[in-house]
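Worked Example 4.2. Consider the chain below.
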Amino acid sequence: MRCRLGHDKISERRVCRALSQPRSTQRYKAKKPDADRQLIAEMRRLVEALPRYGSERVHQLLIGTNWKVNFKRVHRLWKQEHMQVPKKQAKRRRLPGVSANGCTRHRAMRRNHVWSYDFVIDCTEDGRQLKLLVVIDEFTRECLAVEAARSFTARDVKLTLQYLFAVRGTPQHIRSDNGPEFVAKEIQRWLSQASVRTLYIKKASPWENGYVESFNGKLRDELLDRELFLGLDEARYVLDEWRNDYNHRRPHSGIGWQTPAAYAASMNDADGVFPSASLADPPVGAAPLPTAQPATNPKAILSHGMV
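Applying the procedure from the previous section yields the following structure tokens:
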């Protein structure tokens, strides 16, 4: 009424008297309960540390820290406090190039059944190319490795896989695109000796390698688009820290909001740990296992560490 008639022509007291509305009601400001203030403070702390997490994932983190709160309350406060994740982030200078990937056939049914690997391209502060080799387990969603270098050869890829085979065990299948490092005869011959079957996707069909493509999107959204690496050593350190956080602290919606490491730990031996094939030559350069724990024993392989 005052806006329509003019603030200088009529007072708030007169309007309230004419409308029979108590002035105390007009001037009332809701007070947030202490519990809401504490919850909002905790939500803001998580949002500041993890700005690309949405309300659903933050709710799971709150539950993991012993907060007894339902999603409706978190979502209401999330919108009320304007914590929505912005759809777009500030663009950074980046060298041209994007990752490509994904075969809907041979869906992973157990741990170490199907791995996927791919390259992601970024750059350091001086504009030089930064190439990342990503390896994931499609069933547990674990990130097994994120190796950073200026460039990769087929031998570099083989050395990374040799280490993973030694500490993790050998997968039954490994999925990739048709990049030269993945289709090289040296890689194909070595994987064949290790009894690992290759699954190459069709050209220009990244949706066929959806798991690693999804992971690459999270890696770029939550880390690469927010960090400017000064050099290769810094990039390797930050990427390793992020990988550990992704495996051990970040709840994943695809596995019932468990962390990939917790989900992998819940698997028993019958869920499919594939040891190195006994008839195949061992991967060249792989760290030998102690004689008391033969390499064909899945427990012995896993006891040497999870990447």
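Residues 1-30 form one domain. Residues 93-104, 272-307 have pLDDT under 50 and may be disordered. Compare this with Example 4.1 before moving on.
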